[in-house]
Amino acid sequence: MKSFPISLRGLASGLCLSLAAIAGVAHAEYPERPVRIVVPFAPAGGTDLIARTLGQGMSKELGQTVIVENKPGAGTVIGTDLVAKSAPDGYTMVIATLAHAVNPSLLAKLPYNNETAFAPVSLIGKGPNVLVVRTESPYKTVKDILDAVKSGKQLTYASQGNGTSAHLAGEMFTNLTKVELLHVPYRGAGPAMTDLLGGQVDMFFGTAAAVSGMVDQGKLRAIAVTTPEPSPAFKGVPTVAATVPGYAVESWYGFFVPAGTPAPVIAKLNAAVKKAAQSPEFVKKVQHEGLVVTASDPAEFDRYVKAEEARWKKIVKENGIKAE
Q1: Would you state the pLDDT for residue 321?
Q2: Domains 32-127+251-319 and 128-242 share a fold
Q3: Which residues form a coiled coil (predicted)?
């Protein structure tokens, strides 16, 4: 019986080609079931509304249902950690905000590592936070607030959790003005606004997406925006920086998936996010709320987040900002 020599190199090459072919088919078929977006905040806030609006558009592009699941708590850490520990298959995403870049500097310990636990999908967009009060509030300007505190009044400000843009906006305000405001963290913008409207807290540095509807309805008064320049979406509303030189805080939203998610799957998600974010319906909705749509590639988002982490690490250290 004639024998034939077996080449280990040939077997390896054949196996790699077979696995590549199988992987290619798997990626081509993605998604085969619903995709989940985890929102690390309570329902009804700005991040939740953006995730749900984008989810509808992404569903059309992916040909699958996109489910939005709220997992609030611990300044976004609970929901973010859930995604960090999920299977890297493209079926679980997290919508991240400024808190994602700030938490490594603000918190002593995280259950995940930003550098190794996630893969970027896309930066959705950027916009201002808005300092708002109840319409019946006696405070109509940033100066009114400063004067009230300096006269001995204890004023409170709400946030959607430690490390969020609202928290950082308030902390930067107190550090630059040298006044004391009491921070009251909530599990999302929805609960924060409920207590603001009910008079339990005095003010809120809310994201534009969260507060614009209430401002339009006349239930909240916009006092100032947190970006260095005025926002076209809030005409006539001055910047905090006009009264507090050097003040600047910017909100942003973006998607991450667990590290190890195959590149073709990320590319398909990125394409779906871009299509949904650039749709006339979404652009019209968020422009009204001050959000400038970016819809970036994964590499662009990665560079932006790393720059944000470095910037806020410096700000947190220089201003002595604490999580509590």
Answers
A1: 77
A2: yes
A3: none
Q: Among positive and negative, which fits the CA dihedral 204, 206, 211, 216?
A: positive
Q: In 3-state terms, what secondary structure has residue 153?
A: coil
Beta bridge mates, 239? 225
Between strands 118-134 and 203-207, the pairing is: antiparallel
Does 279 have pLDDT greater than 50? yes
- Give the β-pairing of 250-258 and 92-96: antiparallel
Q: How many CA atoms lie within 13 A of 4 on its CB side?
A: 3
Please name the residues in contact with 167: beta carbons below 8 A apart, sequence gap of 6 or more: 75, 159, 160, 161, 183, 185
From CA 159, how far away is CA 183, in angstroms rounded? 7
21's enclosing H/E stretch is: helix 8-29
Domain ranges of the chain: 32-127+251-319, 128-242
C-alpha pair distances (Å), 227 with each of 89, 129, 140, 243, 288: 37, 7, 19, 13, 16
- Residue 253 corresponds to which tokens in the numbers above? 């939203």
Quick one: CATH architecture of 32-127+251-319? 3-Layer(aba) Sandwich (3.40)
Q: From 247, 279, 253, select the one nearest 177 (Cα to Cα).
A: 247
- Pair 273, 254: CB distance under 8 Å: no
Which structure tokens are listed for 181? 């405001």
Q: Which residues pair with 38 in a beta bridge?
A: 69, 94
Asked if residue 72 has a cis previous peptide bond (ω within 30° of 0), the answer is no
**Structure token digits, residue 153:** 């009044």
Question: From its phi and psi, is residue 260 left (phi > 0), alpha (psi between -120 and 50) or beta?
Answer: left
In this structure, whether the domain defined by 128-242 belongs to CATH 3.40.50.2000 is answered with no
Q: How many CB atoms lie within 10 A of CB 21?
A: 10
How far lies 121's CA from each of 103, 124, 261, in Å? 20, 9, 10
The H-or-E segment that residue 120 falls in is strand 118-134
User: Is pLDDT larger for residue 110 or for residue 289?
Assistant: 110
Structure tokens of 103?
Answer: 């938490």
Q: In sequence order, which ranges of 30-65 are alpha helices (DSSP H)?
A: 46-62
